[in-house]
Write a structure and sequence with these properties.
By secondary structure, the protein is mostly helical. Helix content is about 90%, strand content about 0%. The protein is built from two helices and no strands.
């Protein structure tokens, strides 16, 4: 989980996205991770 979050942060910083976009992507990944944990 951490490696993907760090990769996303590096990608966002390189692409110059806004803090709002960063927050949205982080929240999206957390919801996806939670969904897959429920599936197990």
């Amino acid at each position: 989980m951490l490696p993907s979050v760090l990769w996303i942060k590096v990608f966002i910083y390189n692409s110059g996205m806004s803090i709002e976009a960063i927050a949205n992507i982080v929240l999206l990944e957390e919801s996806v991770v939670a969904h897959f944990l429920k599936e197990d």
